[in-house]
Amino acid sequence: MKTKRFKAAALFLFLFVGAIAPTANCADKKAIQQQTNRAYYNLKSHGLAEFRCNVLFDWDGSFSSMKTDATWKETILPIAKQMKFQVSVGPTGAASVSHDLAKRRQVRPSPIGCARYPKASIKCLAVSLKRGPN
Amino acid sequence: MIKPPLGGDPEAYQVEENPDGYRITDKDNSAITMKRDFVIDTVEAKTSEFEGVVRPKFFKSADGELLMESYDVAYTANGGASQRLSVAIQYQTVDGLLLPRTIKMSMALSQGQLDWPMTLDSCQVKKQ
Question: What are phi and psi of B62, to 5 degrees?
């Protein structure tokens, strides 16, 4: 008798738990996948192969509410402002960012930091951004 | 979006239905929760070095398709302190396609608040 009751309770639990947390089968999953993907704007399905844009930064405004030191203001920012960035997004969605120091010759020579080595400026900028302006 | 939010073989993930919507998990410990209208609430990712939750917000285009307008991220990396990041996106139309125009990242750092907008300008589109 006890065994029968236990089996009945186990069956009830199994069915109840199954009812409140059902796992979708393969056909359901495919339907959910298709409906989800249809709900979102997708550049590829709108005909995009790739795009390319210039990237403009507001260097002054971005760091205005942060504590910055003289090296940041006098050395890093002038280089950063002269750099031109471009982003390209290909058919797989992968983005690549390229940069160019537009007016390399106009970078004022400085005895300190990255300005001394304009060719290494993006590396210096990246390190500096990682460290923060202090 | 370039890729659909749920790509690949549906066999690769589990879909659990609950009263609010769906929870989709995969073998890499990432999970997406979304409402019954397929609007994504959260995207969770967890590895041995990184743990993060993304909470996106969407708006509907004129054609009724969902576009991301912002997202908040809370994450910890290498067991460090929890960090928060917010991103807001505005769009532009280029050759009939909706591309991001401004992407503004906001983050509280020890040096102060960082609000870093970037603008995508002079965009060129190549169609299929």
Answer: -60, -30
